[in-house]
Amino acid sequence: MRIPLSIGAIAGPGITLMAGRSVARGGLTMPEKLQVGIVGASGYGGVQLVRLLLDHPGVEIAFLGAHQNAGTPFGELYPQLAHRIDQVCEAIDIEQIAGRCEVVFLATPNGVAYTLAPPLLERGCRVFDLSADYRFVNLATYQTWYGGERQDTAVAREAVYGLPELYRERLRTARLVGCPGCYPTASLLAAAPLLKQGLIDPRSLIIDAKSGVSGAGRTLKTSSLFAEADSSVAAYNVARHRHIPEIEQICSELAGTEVQVQFTPHLIPMARGMLVTLYAQLRDPGLVSEDMLTIYAAFYRQSPAVQILASGVYPQTKWASGTNTCFIGLEVDPRTERVVVLSAVDNLVKGQSGQAIQAMNLNQGWEEMLGLPAVGFYP
Amino acid sequence: MRIPLSIGAIAGPGITLMAGRSVARGGLTMPEKLQVGIVGASGYGGVQLVRLLLDHPGVEIAFLGAHQNAGTPFGELYPQLAHRIDQVCEAIDIEQIAGRCEVVFLATPNGVAYTLAPPLLERGCRVFDLSADYRFVNLATYQTWYGGERQDTAVAREAVYGLPELYRERLRTARLVGCPGCYPTASLLAAAPLLKQGLIDPRSLIIDAKSGVSGAGRTLKTSSLFAEADSSVAAYNVARHRHIPEIEQICSELAGTEVQVQFTPHLIPMARGMLVTLYAQLRDPGLVSEDMLTIYAAFYRQSPAVQILASGVYPQTKWASGTNTCFIGLEVDPRTERVVVLSAVDNLVKGQSGQAIQAMNLNQGWEEMLGLPAVGFYP
Amino acid sequence: MRIPLSIGAIAGPGITLMAGRSVARGGLTMPEKLQVGIVGASGYGGVQLVRLLLDHPGVEIAFLGAHQNAGTPFGELYPQLAHRIDQVCEAIDIEQIAGRCEVVFLATPNGVAYTLAPPLLERGCRVFDLSADYRFVNLATYQTWYGGERQDTAVAREAVYGLPELYRERLRTARLVGCPGCYPTASLLAAAPLLKQGLIDPRSLIIDAKSGVSGAGRTLKTSSLFAEADSSVAAYNVARHRHIPEIEQICSELAGTEVQVQFTPHLIPMARGMLVTLYAQLRDPGLVSEDMLTIYAAFYRQSPAVQILASGVYPQTKWASGTNTCFIGLEVDPRTERVVVLSAVDNLVKGQSGQAIQAMNLNQGWEEMLGLPAVGFYP
Amino acid sequence: MRIPLSIGAIAGPGITLMAGRSVARGGLTMPEKLQVGIVGASGYGGVQLVRLLLDHPGVEIAFLGAHQNAGTPFGELYPQLAHRIDQVCEAIDIEQIAGRCEVVFLATPNGVAYTLAPPLLERGCRVFDLSADYRFVNLATYQTWYGGERQDTAVAREAVYGLPELYRERLRTARLVGCPGCYPTASLLAAAPLLKQGLIDPRSLIIDAKSGVSGAGRTLKTSSLFAEADSSVAAYNVARHRHIPEIEQICSELAGTEVQVQFTPHLIPMARGMLVTLYAQLRDPGLVSEDMLTIYAAFYRQSPAVQILASGVYPQTKWASGTNTCFIGLEVDPRTERVVVLSAVDNLVKGQSGQAIQAMNLNQGWEEMLGLPAVGFYP
């Protein structure tokens, strides 16, 4: 009982034209829709990609890789999708993937992507990695925080950091994209205008982050059990979370000077969503909230995925749930001469899979938010 | 900072054609898109309609009625929608509504619709009422359970019960539709094949329903407070819920004999979703689960909004969250000669606003699920 | 920084007297307080026992057995208890346990207790088993549902079913108690008056149970993850849950005839608590709710752990949270000639550890609710 | 069906002696137990007081004031307590209260206590106010943030700030106590050692607070609805919360210099609990976490209600749920030369009613934690 996708139903010459498929790709004759593959399809990142790409007007899923579930129909892993997808999970095979896919999303654990990306690039695929493997300019930093032996220096140097709001132009032509996760996304979108415009003391950045439990993935650990996480809030990895070096790398690049952040992640009793509360000391205490909001609105005026809220309005993570939108609100405190910025995202969409698709859209010359929900359901 | 809707971006002659706008409507020259109005836009039902209709390729919102919030921009009531809609809530004015809208959705409290529908119908509008006002064939029953003085017998007699899976044909031509709410929807979709095929004892029906708290709407009541409803489950209105007569009316029509149901609603600590657990005594103890699943699949083969699960799979309400899909699983218990049917819906979509839009789609000659999400996000 | 227990502070000759320690136990000179051991202390059942026994005026914890955590201070497993307990988890050693403890609580997985109970009984301990091992009169039934090879027929025959409200007298002298879990407890307390008084058709019993996620224990499984269980409700093991034979065994004993129940467990997004909604066909349709409430109140007048609610009041599981109280409300439906009974317990207290302590209190000749909370916190 | 309180059962001369009732109170003949009154008993603060005082061995509830519910049995407002209390709510009448009570708890909205406390004090009662009315040394500050016309300067000057860990000695003899709420309690207990010992820059304090929804009380507001607060987190009153001046007043007193705090409250989808994450710049970057933990342990060695966690352990609010304990963990970040302190309390116990009882215990010369739970249930 497969239903025709409403959006599928209206796909036609019009849409493919709009979807810019006339753009030559190496002069090859192209299939009607972009053929994409997902490796690591059975985790939360993977199922988000499947869900979003099924409704994406420009693509077709050509490969579903799920190491441990090879041979299992995807609809058995996620029965709620059984009526929309009849593909079967496959083992990871570079030739198979490269033979069928023009674009590959890697939703694999840290340390896997750098074994898959090089051969895939060689075979002409474009690669969007959702893990930490290609987020670091300096592989030594990667190895300090994630371990492993990296030989792929050249490949890593080519990777573009997949945050469209900051690297839009480079993403249009990238072959390899290292997509940031939820903490860096929410933190960097909140901090970027401040650092880029030199509005704050770069050593005063404090980021207090609140994450939904799905951020820990579908892996089995006691702290992710409902009975442990429900009706409770707690911090973890205080002053030692792996996302600190990644956030500092991009912040420093934005500021043009070394930036140090105090980062504290907290687990919140909700499945989805992330809120970042950012504190920073203003260089010019004269600025008021309205000025700052204008600066933010200008900074993100080309960015459909970022919505700046009205003065006095602060984001609720629920507003972003299921969407690729980041909501930002802020308050300048004249008393303390600090700015407090609040940014909310869905940790699994704008904070993960949606962001990778947004980068792919740019990379394909398509409209940035194509196929990505901008409005969540509420309540 | 308004973003072009990806789906809007691909709307064009193709889509309007597909959307069957060539269907003559009184020979009038029609605007490109169907002009719809929403009365009662500020409640949960209303904001769902706004959200879904904003992404619907065939319609345009021409009127937003919100009694208490007249004059307030909708984006102030729901800041998460501010970047998608700049309309202002208006006071209820029949001439204004009828002048601008071809279709009107009434998301008003019980007892309001029957004062608005008659004049709107007179002025040529099609009316989809989400309240209880037009769900009863017999107005005496309505008055017993909801009170009020009804003079609109003729109009009420014309109303079609807005459950597409049971009244598809009549909905294609209806001028007035009384859309069922979440409890009747989940209950009737679970019971229909059993009653229609005479598979059960019509007096043995027990419906144990579990509802998310949003079912109580946005009205302020102590029982809807987070601190009261969280981490707790309780029954309410045992043996006296207002939806009992409505469920029995349709069940009796399906069975061709008077059906009596035992209905117990429960409040579950979740915002969205509804699960119905239905128990009934089988007439033929020989039937096994697989037979029954085949019967259900056949019964709903024309119904894109209903998904029958595989044997041994039972629905989670989360699967339906944000979608217009009803998931149904079941088990025949040979020991007790009963069937246990489980049906899950999103109480605010398939259980309310999405269902009204599904009825409108049919009524417009469009694809039944046009503009309605079929896949929820997970987790 | 250990704080004197307020209740400890008021312990003295008075209390030990009251606690009936004058009761001879083999003429031995006894320590001031009853020495108890807990085997399987690191799971949810175990930590509940530790928490409750720490505040119990009559006992002292003499042994903490935790197989996998032997050698670890209990306060490291549960830091919130570190200021109250400095004992270290030990490996299971029959001689050690019997040498130090007069009473032993077994909070081990099914299939372990029947290897530990016999040797402990031989050595003079009284044993309270929280698993399924000693709940069945007929070991064949146990083996059908739980597997394993049982040789301990004689021992099993001696075991008393640990539901104080039904087996109070036998528990006063029992050496071995098989304590029921949450589903049977909530179900049997709701059904007992109906069956004992022959008020219902014994084949019409339908039990729709709603359980908090902690009922699945601290074991790691995907369905217990926060992101899976949150904001969702679903049924599981429909018509095949292991507690069915146990519930039917006691129901049949109460009714004096074979009783068959339709039992459907559901997982609710809350950590603690259980609600049972019971449906049954009345033999005498003349009974009204008030009569039935009087019958229940009389049936439980000697039972401090059961509270019958006023007419029209239905229990919220939150009321029972953290307590050893079972709240019961009901409604007789004259239309359908059925009774709907609602019973709420804390699945980990009255549904597990608190119940075992209540049985121990009776067994020691103490006040039944000694050391057991009767009032939960709210909200 | 009233059950004898296990603790009641063991009350006797011993306990009253222990409870220090020999302390002369104006040479009057005293009743066996301290007679206490609660004004504002129907709100969350009130019901917590009732629950805790019912189990308190030294007191007896002599008056239950509930303005809007005068005449209603308390057990009707909270059916889960019906088996434990048969008192009826009464209208507020100074003579009635003073005639029956030696100690009065005021759980009334801000602005009410200062009309009740003066006449009650005149009549010899001791008053514990849970509102903001008596927390300020300077009434002008109160009026700036809370409005109203205060004439009771002398009375206000006499009030003692009810945080036992900081004002233990003064509380022993106080006649009027202004008990702090959850935000100041969690914040001040986290900050006190740092400020008292001059370990941090007094202008660098940033307090990021996370509160359960019950903190908003039982008042009906949209933001407190389950469907709004569930599965979401958001900040509110950024840089303008009423608790800022109160926190700064005590911090300044501790530091002996003017302290300014950046305070951001957040609403977390849980009913109970509060976590404060405090950030401050260290004066001596040489300090390591272990040193700091030693300093905290020493600072609170006389404080049974504060538990300092081991190095690397951070509190979960669930650990404190239902208890009067504050759990504190911390981390010194040598990279940023900041200390991050985490403190968790139950917002309605240590953050409200339990704290008032703790102050009463001290005031009565009783053991500080008498009748107050030190161990929460888990999970």
Automatic annotation (TrEMBL), chains A, B, C, D:
> What is the stated purpose of this protein?
Catalyzes the NADPH-dependent reduction of N-acetyl-5-glutamyl phosphate to yield N-acetyl-L-glutamate 5-semialdehyde.
Provide the Semialdehyde dehydrogenase NAD-binding domain boundaries: 35-174
Q: Name one GO biological process term.
A: L-arginine biosynthetic process
Tell me which residues this entry annotates as catalytic: 182
Q: Which family does it belong to?
A: Belongs to the NAGSA dehydrogenase family. Type 1 subfamily.
Q: What is the protein name given in its UniProt record?
A: N-acetyl-gamma-glutamyl-phosphate reductase
* GO molecular function annotations of the record: N-acetyl-gamma-glutamyl-phosphate reductase activity; NAD binding; NADP+ binding
Question: Keywords in UniProt for this one?
Answer: Amino-acid biosynthesis, Arginine biosynthesis, Cytoplasm, NADP, Oxidoreductase
EC?
A: 1.2.1.38
PROSITE patterns, sorted: ARGC
Enumerate the SMART domains for this protein.
Semialdhyde_dh
Q: Does the keyword Oxidoreductase apply?
A: yes
Coiled-coil stretches are none
Q: Where is the protein found, in the record's own terms?
A: Cytoplasm
Task: List the taxonomic lineage.
Answer: Bacteria, Bacillati, Cyanobacteriota, Cyanophyceae, Gloeobacterales
**CC per GO annotation:** cytoplasm
Question: Which superkingdom heads the taxonomic lineage of this protein's source?
Answer: Bacteria
Q: What class of enzyme is it?
A: oxidoreductase
- What is the reaction catalyzed? N-acetyl-L-glutamate 5-semialdehyde + phosphate + NADP(+) = N-acetyl-L-glutamyl 5-phosphate + NADPH + H(+)
